[in-house]
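Hello,

Following up on my earlier ticket. Below are the three sequence lines again, exactly as submitted.
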Amino acid sequence: MPFRSAGGFAPGINISWRVRGTDMTGTNTHYILTEWESETNTNELIVHLYTLPARNVFEQHNENGKACSDLRKLNKSHVIDFFEHLIASWQPIEHWGEYSFINHETRAIDVTISTERTILERLLLRTIENVQPRNEIAAGSRKFTWLKPEKVVQNISIHRVIQCDVNISAAGVISVGFDLNHSFRTSESVSDLMKAGAILKGDRVIDKYNNMHYEFDEVSGDTISDVVPELRQSVIDYFVKERKQAWKVDKLDPKMPVVYVKMYNGQRSAYAPAMLQKELTFESLPPAVVRQTSEVYKQNANLKIATLLEEIQNILRRTDKLQFSKRKLLVEQSGYDVTKIENPILSFGRNVTQPQPKYGLEKGGVAFGQPLAINLLVYPEFFETKLEAITAFNEKLCALSSKWGVPLTILKKSGAYKNKSIDFTNPHQFAILLKELKDTAFKELTLVIATEKIAGMWYDSIKKEFGGSAAVPTQFVTMETLQRADDYILGNILLGLYAKSGIQPWVLSSPLASDCFIGLDVSHEAGRHSAGIVQVVGKDGRVLSSRANTSTEAGEKIRNDTMRQIVYSAVDQYQRHYGEMPQHITFHRDGFCREDLNSLDEVMESLNVDYDMVEVIKKTNRRMALNVDRQGWETKQGVCYVRDNLAYLIATNPHPRVGTAQPIKIIKKKGSLSIEAIIHDIYHLSFMHIGSFLKCRLPITTYYADLSSTFFNRQWLPIDSGEALHFV
DNA sequence: TCTAGAATGTCACCTGTCCA
DNA sequence: TGGACAGGTGACATTCTAGA
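Thanks for your patience. The regenerated structure is below:
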């Protein structure tokens, strides 16, 4: 058995591991990451590595995919995988069919070669997939899906899915990362759906035994006992004789018709419809089903982690290639340091400092403000029907704003539009009116009041005309919200208005480690890609400028020239605010950094500015949790695992009914700051989202970069919006 | 500097719920 | 009101290599 002890993790309590030595903190707290380092090193794994000759220059990266699948058929029971020119197997491959190899080695992989690491990662993952009981778990495509549904409601079944990734480090350390998700599909098979006429050509279907996705094509005239040309045998014989999986077909009606499905490459495949289920998208689910099932997939940390730990052990103990020991699940045993970052103290007006924005604003008002005048754009009908409600709302808004130290004036310009004889629900007529308004009356920040339906029709035209072409920021509020506005609603609307007019409600009371921060993102939507969206943030967390870079990028990679323009612009903004050059700039790259850092080095060196390049990864397939005195698993905001230049950080505190926190991954690519200082800055910057009472998961550098690039792509943003944050 | 293809990764989108 | 989270898809990017 690969495990030292066979005890399971019953939800929350029955944790049977023992940590060798003393707990570092002295308390009985266990910290885990859903990433398990194996006791097995790559040098203990001997593989057969075959090098195949390149046969077709145009297909050199995929031609071995076909070879690999043919070799698997010829050498049943072997686990075989490929990558590039290599084919790997645990045992010698005896039958080669039409293929030949030019080299064969039997050895451990060379961990310094990335291609060899990748092929072993793939071989290990396939090995783990192959040893799972096929009548219990569908394994494939890095997913392990339980055949038995967790719950069935109105013929919709929810299945547990564990997603896995295998990683090999340059030191030969093998680790498996995992996370728990759920999958929705019809509980009835495609065969049942056919009888009810509930399956159509083009519907997405899934092979429930192996996670393969297809597009439903047509019903054939043959039955599953007839010989079909593609298989040169019947579907039943194929599974009984060739695949030795009689259990898949032995209960099926032999008169069941064969169906055809289309694969991603357009190829057709013959199937027994009883093996297929129809895939369902989240929005297609009836609300009643969502209500009755959310408890299954919206799991609190204790349920999620306990299930995950128990099931990943079951999955991994089925293979003898990799050994795992339970103590390695404790992050300290995998070389991570556990730290807790304290929440920042925020500074408001009148020298008030407070961790909570709402209380800080009540006591001290905004940190930096000036009187504010705004326009109202109201759906004309409301002047007759809802005037009282709107007036009451305006009064409450002004009262709260003055309490926060910002005298608010609402300009009366309804005369400019309310008696126009146009159809306000017609987007074309309305767009023409907007052109007129922005040139005459509406030059200031505008609050738009309409019903949810009207707002939906107006949103794009208003953001384009006012925001994109006239640089007039707008804040929307629906009639429904306005009528039930309490202090939280009013507060968030006010914060939105402030952010859009350059009023700073709060700043960080203690300085960040770097002088200046730049958020980098690339956005692609409707075929357009714009990049190098720069958000310059100062030492107190204040956004000095936000600007969308106009250059259109070819891909996810930001061009050298664009990078230089971003740096020039940031240094310029910094000098205007502080009258001096920044000594150090930190770049927060949303996603992987693929930019050429040598070229950036050159620019920064000649400007005599130090820099750090940091990647902020949003989706990691990992969870973090801690367990105090075996009371159950929980997540704690501010907890952080650090190892070398890598860190996982929990920056949110979701309610248990909402789900389990998603950690962010932080990687220091290059620079002089300590990783601790970098994490600290990122965490504190996630409190600097000034458009709402609530903090965000990401630092505002990447969060705002993301928002503004989306706005920019939709032409809702002017080229230079200065201090105003149109996008909050 | 460009190209190939498979694998992989990220994003926006959608709907609903909960909370501050 | 805003934001996090839930799952799945489509869209589209990247990576790898080596020859022209």
